[in-house]
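Lecture notes, part 5. Sequence design as translation. It can be helpful to think of inverse folding as translation between two languages: the language of shapes and the language of residues. The source text, in structure tokens, appears below.
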């Protein structure tokens, strides 16, 4: 066996280095699961899943219909009762405070008798329903009389046509002479006269509350004309 330390060996054997001392390694603790609390408090219980709305059953649907019908009927009955009570209250109040109708007076003054011309028709009293006329009667007497402006057919108001010397109804064509006697159209009888009189100072007073009909012989009544 050759001596390693002998001279002349071209590849002397090198000594083996000593191994390094062992290094202390601290073990890493395992990671906690997500649901584990470090403080020791137990985790909150999971929220229950939302329940799907229950489908309406036939019984629930029937109950809903009945309740809806009853509610509608009750509301209608209550509304009707309320309206009827309001109507009764308003009627009572109106009965306690009746309306005052502004009607024209039945009696009016028609001016001085001497201001009327024979055979002349004036419309100044037409708006209050009368014509005051001076004319000769069937006996040739000079009289003043007051005619109603209401047609004896259907109640329209005739117009005086000066060129034709007649009253003509625009509704159905009835015609009346200046005396008020009907002579054409569907009017069944003459115009009516109102009561008329002359005061001591010559003023004419017409009373529309009293009427005189020729077909009843009332035109012969002295209160139906003024004799001049």
């Amino acid at each position: 066996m050759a001596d390693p330390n002998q001279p002349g060996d071209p590849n002397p054997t090198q000594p083996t280095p000593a191994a390094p001392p062992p290094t202390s390694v601290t073990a890493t603790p395992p990671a906690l699961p997500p649901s584990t609390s470090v403080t020791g408090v137990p985790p909150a219980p999971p929220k229950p899943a939302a329940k799907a709305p229950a489908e309406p059953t036939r019984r629930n649907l029937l109950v809903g219909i009945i309740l809806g019908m009853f509610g509608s009927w009750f509301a209608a009955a209550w509304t009707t009762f309320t309206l009827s009570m309001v109507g009764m209250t308003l009627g009572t109040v109106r009965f306690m405070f009746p309306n005052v109708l502004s009607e024209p007076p039945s009696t009016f003054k028609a001016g001085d008798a001497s201001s009327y011309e024979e055979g002349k028709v004036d419309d100044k009293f037409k708006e209050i329903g009368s014509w005051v006329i001076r004319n000769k009667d069937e006996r040739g007497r000079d009289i003043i009389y007051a005619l109603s402006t209401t047609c004896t057919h259907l109640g329209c108001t005739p117009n005086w046509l000066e060129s034709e010397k007649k009253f003509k109804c625009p509704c159905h064509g009835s015609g009346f002479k200046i005396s008020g006697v009907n002579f054409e159209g569907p009017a069944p009888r003459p115009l009516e006269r109102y009561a008329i009189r002359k005061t001591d100072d010559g003023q004419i007073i017409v009373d529309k509350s009293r009427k005189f009909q020729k077909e009843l012989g009332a035109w012969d009544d002295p209160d139906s004309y003024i004799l001049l």
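The translated text above is only one of many valid answers, since several sequences can fold into similar shapes. The mean pLDDT is 79.
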